[in-house]
Amino acid sequence: MSTHAKKWLSALASVFSAVVLVATMAVPAQASTGDSSDVPPPTVSTTTAPLVIDCSTITEEGREYAITHNLNVCGILSDSGDGASARGTVYNDCGSASIDMSSAGSGNAMIVWSIHSTQGWILWYGIDVYYSGQTNSGVVGFSGFPVNINAGDYTTPHTGHGWASTYLAGTVETVLWTCYVAYPDDTAFIS
Question: What would the DSSP string read from start to end of 86-144?
Answer without folding.
Answer: GTS--EEEEEEEEEEEEEEETTEEEEEEEEEESSS-EEEEEEEEEEE-SS-EEEEEEEE
